[in-house]
Amino acid sequence: MKTYCFKLYNAKRNRKLHQQINVAGCIYNHCIALHKRYYQLYGKSLPLYKLQLHLTKLKRINRFKFWNILGSQAIQDLSQRIDKGYKLFFRNLKHKIRTAPPRFKKVKKYRSFTLKQAGYKLLDGNKIQFGKQIYKYHKSREIEGLIKTVTIKRDALGDIYIYFACEQEVNEVMTRTGNSVGYDFGLKLFLTASDNVDIESPLFFKQNANAIKRANRKLSSKKKGSNNRERARLILARVHKRTANQRKEFHFKTAQDVAEQYATICIEDLNIKAMQMMWGRKISDLGHSCFVNILKHQCSKTGTKVIEIPRFYPSSKTCSSCGHLLKELSLAVREWICPECKTTHDRDRNAALNILKVGMSTLLGEVA
Questions:
Q1: Bridge partners for 135 per DSSP
Q2: Torsion on CA atoms 39, 113, 110, 134, rounded to nearest 10
Q3: Which residues contact 307 (CB under 8 A, 6 or more apart)?
Q4: Hey, is 289 helix, strand or coil?
């Protein structure tokens, strides 16, 4: 599966798509309310078939006739996603995993709806038809493969994007031979490499922190419901979007360079939630988890092998020279001397060397 994203031209006709997204938010909240009520009455989850049958009946009532501006397939997809969320919640509850059930959302903050086989038609050039209305989008490349779903999504700025999820036949890229590297994710350095070719962490949120503070301050001083407040909200949204785009560009460029340079990349299996609890906003600013997903995608194109070592392997406390394992090593200690071989270690560099060793031994074990 491959997803293509295109931005829709800004036009007055886009108001209808905004209305449809708002209606999708209303239906979503109504489905959540039905699930909660059904559980209170019967002590079990509402079956998907019963929910969809009930929604079909509601659309015939005058009170809910405005739901008909949204396609039936979009409503079905809504109910399916909610049903999937509740099934996951009850499964985690059974295994004593702490998760939250699907919850109500503000209609203004609701973001998207999805169409599957019907409700849209691709036209020549950069045009697409939803219902009876034709829209133009910025077609930056050709769409390849069989389109399975089309998602209409809006962001905080009110811009609308179209996502085409396509099924493609892709030739498998064979793994290649070449240099290997181990990477340790850090706070001061984004990636500490085993071959000393480190990558600095740009911290885009920190760079734009002053602009975000000013925009937040102006927003809080505006009267709720006024046009000035809406303009201030858009200014704040633009700053956040610029920050996210800068981080995304950095991740893609770094992942592409690394994937082309090395044939084998060894990394840690990160526990992001635990790291966020310890270091908070800085971990979110670095975006390690997003980078790993992008790195795996880029490596699949170049034939580079990505190996994740076990999460609880003590890479920082193990001597990369003799293998001696320290009992304790405080996070404040950035350098330490091995009591066995007397080698001085930089904490992150030592971890990167150990990650490379464990990763390559794992690869050799798979080959054998």
A1: 128
A2: -150
A3: 264, 265, 266, 267, 359, 360, 362, 363
A4: helix
Going across the sheet that includes 2-7, the strands are: 2-7, 160-167, 146-154, 112-115
Over its length of 368 residues, how does the chain's per-residue pLDDT go in tens digits? 889 999 999 999 999 999 999 999 999 999 999 999 999 999 888 999 999 999 999 999 999 999 999 988 999 999 999 999 999 999 998 888 888 899 999 999 999 999 988 888 999 889 999 988 999 999 988 998 899 999 999 999 999 999 999 988 877 777 777 888 998 888 888 888 888 888 888 889 889 999 999 999 999 999 998 999 999 999 999 999 999 999 999 999 999 999 999 989 998 887 777 777 777 777 788 888 889 999 998 988 888 888 888 888 888 888 888 888 888 877 778 888 888 888 888 888 888 888 888 888 877 665 44
- CA max distance for the chain: 82
pTM greater than the 0.90 cutoff: no
Q: Which amino acid is at 152?
A: I
Nearest alpha carbon to residue 320 among 191, 189, 177, 182? 182
CA distances from 55 to 28, 49, 75, 116 (A): 11, 10, 8, 18
Question: Among 100, 193, 210, 109, which Cα is nearest to 153's?
Answer: 109
In the structure encoding, which two tokens stand for residue 347, read together?
């904490």
Distance CA 295, CA 260 (A): 11
CB-based burial of residue 239 (10 Å sphere; 0-12 exposed, 13-18 middle, 19+ buried)? middle
CB-CB contact of 335 with 345 (8 Å): yes
